[in-house]
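Hi there,

I know you've been waiting on this one. I reran it after we fixed the sequence typo, so this is the corrected version. Both the input and the resulting structure follow.
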Amino acid sequence: MVLNLIIESSEFTKIFGLDFFHAEDFIHLVTRFGYNLFWVFIPSYFLYFKKRGDKEYFFTFMIASIVVFQICMLLGTVSLRIGFALGLFAIFGILRYRTNPIPPREMTYLFMVIGMSVKNALANENISMAELIVTDLIIIVVAFSIELYLDNFKLLRKRIVYDRTDLIKPEKYDELLKDLSNRFGINIEKADIGPVDLIRDKVELIIYFQKVEGIRFFDS
């Protein structure tokens, strides 16, 4: 009874020019938000955070998806909603932080959660619930399958800055690998040579090594 009175009175109550409460729209928002949060949480936590443990990007994935979903959902009645969503998607798609660019894998996960949020927010009556669930499930299954496939490759790589340019000569390649292995305490199987700074006597290398249990390397 009290709830009905609140709903009826809200039709005549405005705050900042907005109706105070729309019961049907509110329930629609909450249920769809919960649906989207469920699907976004799976790749963000189980596929990424549990495997890589980077809480900074996990935080980014979750908050970015929530904000994008809310914007698309609450502004979903405007006539240019599709163009707006694609524009917002493009902005986040080329996002770079001022200090370091986002690594490709993290960028892909960000692309994934934003795309899922936009899709789940703007899905209308032309799309059935079954289609929405299947498309979200396909994204998760494909991402999981690729992650599982990549885990079979035990050879990891890491970009480093090396301080001995005298060892980047072809005839000293074996000595270079030995020095790198001694410094890192792991077996470096190969190394690719990148830009060389002869003034500072430094060179960028991409080193390749077997996966070591208990040691976690950030992507470069």
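Quick highlight: The chain has two domains: 2-151, 155-210.

Best,
R. S.
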